[in-house]
């Protein structure tokens, strides 16, 4: 999860987020090189009284500064499109979960099970135990098996919401009357935090998302206990 004074992204917990981090570094390096070149040219133009006649009127330079930006855009666009299609790919999910946004909590329904669903409310600050995070902890976590393709169907019951977990590289709008889908694979066990990312009313800041990735045998034990309680 994010920590104070953090400047970069959260540590990746899914293959897609790793790809996004690599693309971010790739694009940032290109932007850095362009910025350095432009800054050097500005400083050179301001700090010298000399004039180069080939810069004032040169067909070759105009060709270069027309083609070069196009090549740079292609170098950015190709990996971006690749990741875009990867994020849209949903192949044979092992588990499907329906996430419904409400004002102001989430409800989860495990559609592969006959009667497995629950509401997930934020734990109030006064009820937190030692080690829990304010505004991020919920009374029920969305538990998923690690290293398994998970499909999440996202919708809302009242207003626009957005189901987002940064470390998993997932962000999907929850629109009333519309069923959107996204997918992720948790590559390691852990607890991953997110929040509603669409302003949805007075308590928009108080509907966190907690995804807990566990080994498959632990998930099976958890689902059995939940079904017994139901």
UniProtKB/TrEMBL annotation:
Q: Which GO terms describe its molecular function?
A: copper ion binding; cytochrome-c oxidase activity; oxidoreductase activity
Q: How does it sit in the membrane?
A: Multi-pass membrane protein
What is the protein's species of origin?
Rhinogobio cylindricus
Q: Quick one: which gene encodes this? A: COX2
Major location category of this protein: mitochondrion
Protein name according to UniProt: Cytochrome c oxidase subunit 2
Which keywords appear in this protein's UniProt record, sorted alphabetically? Copper, Electron transport, Magnesium, Membrane, Metal-binding, Mitochondrion, Mitochondrion inner membrane, Respiratory chain, Translocase, Transmembrane, Transmembrane helix, Transport
UniProt lists the family membership as follows:
Belongs to the cytochrome c oxidase subunit 2 family.
InterPro entries reported for this sequence: CcO_II, CcO_II-like_C, CcO_II_C, Copper_CuA, Cupredoxin, Cyt_c_oxidase_su2, Cyt_c_oxidase_su2_TM_dom, Cyt_c_oxidase_su2_TM_sf
Residue stretches spanning the membrane: 27-51, 63-85
Domain Cytochrome oxidase subunit II transmembrane region profile: from-to ranges: 1-91
- All residue ranges annotated as the Cytochrome oxidase subunit II copper A binding domain in the record: 92-225
**Pfam families the UniProt entry points to:** COX2 (PF00116), COX2_TM (PF02790)
Q: Which SUPFAM superfamilies match?
A: Cupredoxins, Cytochrome c oxidase subunit II-like, transmembrane region
Job of this protein: Component of the cytochrome c oxidase, the last enzyme in the mitochondrial electron transport chain which drives oxidative phosphorylation. The respiratory chain contains 3 multisubunit complexes succinate dehydrogenase (complex II, CII), ubiquinol-cytochrome c oxidoreductase (cytochrome b-c1 complex, complex III, CIII) and cytochrome c oxidase (complex IV, CIV), that cooperate to transfer electrons derived from NADH and succinate to molecular oxygen, creating an electrochemical gradient over the inner membrane that drives transmembrane transport and the ATP synthase.
Reaction(s) catalysed (UniProt annotation) = 4 Fe(II)-[cytochrome c] + O2 + 8 H(+)(in) = 4 Fe(III)-[cytochrome c] + 2 H2O + 4 H(+)(out)
Cofactor note (record): Binds a copper A center.
Location in or out of the cell: Mitochondrion inner membrane
The superkingdom listed in its UniProt entry is Eukaryota
Q: Which cofactor does it need?
A: Cu cation
What biological processes does GO assign it? ATP synthesis coupled electron transport
Q: Which terms in the GO cellular component ontology are assigned?
A: mitochondrial inner membrane
């Amino acid at each position: 999860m994010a920590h104070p004074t953090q400047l970069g992204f959260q540590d990746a917990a899914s293959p897609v987020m790793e790809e996004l981090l690599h693309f971010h570094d790739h694009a940032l390096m290109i932007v850095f090189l362009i910025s350095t070149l432009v800054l050097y040219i500005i400083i050179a133009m301001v700090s010298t009284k000399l004039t180069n006649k080939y810069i004032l009127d040169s067909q070759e330079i105009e060709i270069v500064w027309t083609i070069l930006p196009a090549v740079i855009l292609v170098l950015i666009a190709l990996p971006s499109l690749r990741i875009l299609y990867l994020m849209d790919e949903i192949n044979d999910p092992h588990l499907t979960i329906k996430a419904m946004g409400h004002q102001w909590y989430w409800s989860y329904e495990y559609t592969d099970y006959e009667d497995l669903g629950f509401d997930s409310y934020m734990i109030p600050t006064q009820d937190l135990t030692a080690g829990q995070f304010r505004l991020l902890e919920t009374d029920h976590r969305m538990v998923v098996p690690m290293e398994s393709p998970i499909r999440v169907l996202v919708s809302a019951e009242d207003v626009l919401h957005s189901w987002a977990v940064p470390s998993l590289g997932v962000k999907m709008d929850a629109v009333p009357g519309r069923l959107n889908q996204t997918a992720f694979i948790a590559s390691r066990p852990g607890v991953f935090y997110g929040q509603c990312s669409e302003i949805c009313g007075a308590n928009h800041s108080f509907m966190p998302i907690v995804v807990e990735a566990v080994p498959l045998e632990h998930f099976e034990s958890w689902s059995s206990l939940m079904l017994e309680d139901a």
